[in-house]
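Hey, can you fold this one?
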Amino acid sequence: MLNDADAIMNAEDPIAACLAAGATVKKSTETSSSSLNLSGVEFGASEAYTVTHTWTLPGKTGVRASFGKESLKHTFIKLFKSEIQVGDPSFDDAVYISTATEAATKRLLASEQFQNGVLGFVATGGDVAVQDDTVTLRTRSADEHVEPDTMDSVSVLAALLALVE
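Sure. Predicted structure:
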C-alpha cells in the first residue's frame, strides 16, 4: 500500500491529497432531454445531467466492480446469482454490487469509508465503477451545475488509493 486512506481523508484539501498521491481526473457532462409530444404539442420537457469524474489511479487495485442502486431487476438477478453482502442492511439493501474480482472487492468493501462514499453516490442516483486503476464516479441531476459530493468522492478514492501497490 502506497497511501494512507486516513491521511487523505483528514487532509486540509482531500482532493489535492488524492492528486498528490498520483491520481488524475477528467470531468465530463452529458445532457439528456425527455418530453411527451402529442399532436405537435410538447408536454413535460425536461433535461437531466450526468456529471462524470473519471479518476486514473497511480497503479492497479485488482478491483473490477460496479456499485449502483439496488432495483427490482437486481432482486430478481439475486435469485440466480449471489451478491457480496457487507452485513450492514442499510448498505446491502441500497447498493447492488457486480464484480469480476470477488476477493479484491471484499477487501475494498471492508473499508467503511468506501461503503459510506458509495452510499452517498447511490442515494443521489449516481454510481461508482472501478476497473483496476480507473474509477468512474457518476452523479445524475436536473441541475447542470451539480458536482459529485467531495467527501463521497474522497471516501471512495482514499480507500482505493490505499489498495494501490
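The beta strands are 24-38, 41-56, 64-69, 95-99, 127-131, 134-141. Let me know if you want another pass with a different chain boundary.
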